[in-house]
User: Fold this.
Amino acid sequence: QVQLVESGGGLVQPGGSLRLSCAASGSIVSINDMGWYRQAPGEERELVAQIFSVGYTNYADSVKGRFTISRDNAKNTVYLQMNSLKPEDTAVYYCSANLRTMSWGPNQRYWGQGTQVTVSS
Assistant:
């Protein structure tokens, strides 16, 4: 009964910007962390950025200084502001959340459907 809905992907020219959003809904008790992963064709899925409940953030080296992850705890929503986009950023971007659906249950990871980001001239 948990759903992650992503939006904001699309086609952008090199040097441009996009803002991705992901809203988690359903029987959510708490969220430990949320993050963004990406996967290019023929490549392994990689972590782009993640943010924890206390606000700690973690970024892949390739996006540091260009991407910013943020979270609206009241809305169970995570954002990824992507600036100075490069062709190598082209991938399907997936939202992920590590969360509880029961007060005394374990954290479990959920995934969004993915949104395509294409950086091309």
